[in-house]
C-alpha cells in the first residue's frame, strides 16, 4: 500500500512586500476564492547586522501572511525570503493524489503577480505498508552481517543532477531520506499510528549557490514536471 501524505512546493526570493496589510489580504482572498482560503498572521525571525560591526547581530520578528483552507489542510505562507505551499493528508486512509503538485502550483500562480525566484524546491512524504514496505526493506538491508535485520533504519543520500529549465541546465539536488517508519506521524496537527511501514521523503531543489532571480511560474511548472518524473522513477526502483 502507498499513501502520499504531504506535498510542499517552495520558491525563494525577496517577498518582503507581501505583508499582512488589509489591501494584500483582500487581494489574496479574491485570488484564492475557489480554494476557500482565509488569512492568518504568523511571526518570522529576521537577523541583520551592520557591515561596520559584523560580529553584532540584531534579531527581530516580523509579521507575515499565510492563507489557510477552511479545513486546515492546505496552506500558503509568504515568508520574507520564501513562499511555501503545503498540503497534508487528512489521514493515512485518505492520502493525497499524485497530481497534487500542479494544484499547489495553481495556488502559487493565483497568489503572486510578476514575481521572480532564484530557487525552487519540492518536498514530499510517502508512506508504504506491506507488501511494498517489505520490498524496500530488501533494498535497504545492510551489507554488515550483524545488521541483516534491524529495529531502526535511517538513510539519507543526495545526488546532483541537471534539469533542463528554459533551455538552461540547472544543477539540482535530489535528496532521498529512507527510514523505517516512526511509531507515529503528525498530519494536520493530529497523531496517527504507523505499523511496520516505511517512510520515504524527497527533497528535490535547485542548488542554493546560484542566487540570481531567473525563474518565473513557467519555470516552476517545468521543474515540477521533471522532479515528479524523477521521484516516481526512484519509487518504482524501490518497490519494483
What are the defining features of this structure?
two-stranded antiparallel ribbon; alpha+beta; 11 strands; single chain; 9-stranded antiparallel beta sheet; about 240 residues
Kindly provide the radius of gyration, computed on alpha-carbon positions and rounded to a whole number of angstroms: 20 Å
Q: Helix segment count?
A: 4
Give helix % range.
10-25%
Beta strands, count: 11
Our estimate of the beta-strand percent is: 35-45%
Structural class: alpha+beta
Please describe the biggest sheet, giving its number of strands, its sense, and whether it closes into a barrel: 9 strands, antiparallel
What is the spatial order of strands in the main beta sheet? 2-3-4-5-1-6-11-8-7
Instruction: Let me know the average pLDDT.
Output: 89
User: End-to-end span in angstroms?
Assistant: 13 Å
The unreliable regions are: none
Order of helices and strands: EHEEEEHEHEEEEEH
Overall 3D shape: globular
Amino acid at each position: 500500500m502507498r499513501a502520499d501524505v504531504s506535498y510542499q512546493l517552495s520558491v525563494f526570493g525577496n517577498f518582503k512586500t507581501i505583508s499582512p496589510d488589509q489591501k494584500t489580504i483582500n487581494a489574496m482572498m479574491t485570488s484564492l476564492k475557489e480554494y476557500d482560503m482565509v488569512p492568518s498572521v504568523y511571526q518570522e525571525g529576521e537577523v541583520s547586522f551592520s557591515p561596520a560591526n559584523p560580529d553584532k547581530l540584531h534579531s527581530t520578528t516580523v509579521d507575515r501572511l499565510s492563507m489557510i483552507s477552511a479545513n486546515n489542510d492546505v496552506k500558503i505562507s509568504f515568508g520574507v525570503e520564501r513562499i511555501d505551499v503545503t498540503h497534508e493528508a487528512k489521514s493515512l486512509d485518505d492520502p493525497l493524489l499524485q497530481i497534487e503538485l500542479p494544484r499547489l502550483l495553481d495556488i502559487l500562480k493565483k497568489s503572486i503577480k510578476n514575481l521572480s525566484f532564484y530557487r525552487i524546491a519540492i518536498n514530499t512524504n510517502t508512506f508504504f505498508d506491506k507488501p511494498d514496505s517489505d520490498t524496500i526493506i530488501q533494498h535497504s538491508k545492510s551489507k554488515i552481517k550483524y545488521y541483516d535485520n534491524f529495529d531502526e533504519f535511517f538513510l539519507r543520500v543526495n545526488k546532483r543532477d541537471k534539469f533542463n529549465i528554459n533551455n538552461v541546465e540547472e544543477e539540482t539536488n535530489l535528496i532521498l531520506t529512507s527510514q523505517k517508519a516512526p511509531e507515529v506521524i503528525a498530519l494536520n496537527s493530529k497523531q496517527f499510528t504507523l505499523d511496520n511501514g516505511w517512510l520515504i521523503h524527497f527533497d528535490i531543489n535547485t542548488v542554493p549557490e546560484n542566487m540570481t532571480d531567473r525563474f518565473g511560474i513557467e519555470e516552476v511548472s517545468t521543474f515540477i514536471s521533471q522532479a515528479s518524473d524523477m521521484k516516481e522513477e526512484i519509487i518504482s526502483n524501490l518497490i519494483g
